[in-house]
Sequence to fold (249 residues):
Amino acid sequence: MTVTRRNLLAGGALGLLAGCDQLGANPSFQSLLGLAEKGNFHIQRALSDRMALAKEFRPDQRSPIFRANGTREPPGPAYAAHKAANFANWRLKVDGLVARPQSISIAQLRAMPQRAQITRHDCVEGWSAIGKWTGVPLKLMLDAAGLMPTARYIVFHCADMMPGEAPYYESIDLVDAHHPQTIMAWALNDEPLPVGNGAPVRLRVERQLGYKHAKYVERIEAVATLDALHGGKGGYWEDRADYEWYAGI
Ligand SMILES: Nc1nc2c(c(=O)[nH]1)N[C@H]1C(S)=C(S)[C@@H](COP(=O)(O)O)O[C@H]1N2
Ligand SMILES: [Mo]
Fold:
């Protein structure tokens, strides 16, 4: 799908207003922002700052090679079997604090409404790359699942775990989860995701640094608190290296 910058911005603004209505009616969302008593104007103002779009680039500005970083291929027989089957049996689950848990195949993911965006990925290790990502807006998947009012964070559980190690996982709040550029991407530069870049599906959360962009996502979980998960800081690097949980750029 080709989306021009102009109708993308218009669509983003409409989406924001629709999102405000919906989110504004959600008491936990208001308290999350600390805005419950301040009225609609302030809610919309705070949301529109966080909902601003990350810069998008022209096709010719893409990096010739989009490097792979962190896990380049999840170890173990389960992922190897998925890879051998071209990910036909992969399921992206959406569960936790939702009314209608989902289990979505990659074929189903590709049949849902798509968004494509050419953005710059910034890794804290000191490199950047520009690539085109195509995928399904996370908001649509959460709407399909029906977030419960108690849900405050969205957690991404990944398939890569070194033997005896903690699994990779990440989490974002409901503002980023509803951002128009937050997508579950299955294509990089118009090709199915390479294994190195997170096949068959990874998060793109364009207003945050690289480590938030979970690869090899198997499960999206809506939770009320991050305390009970792994090290309790909301992400693999947050738990082990004190990376910031909110890595806004
Ligand atoms: N599952 C998983 N996701 C991950 C990582 C990882 O090791 N495992 N590394 C993170 C880091 S630090 C970066 S910079 C990006 C790298 O994405 P890329 O391999 O497509 O360049 O993925 C992020 N997501
Ligand atoms: Mo990174």
Observations:
- Helices lie at 5-24, 27-33, 40-50, 77-84, 106-111, 138-145, 174-177, 236-241.
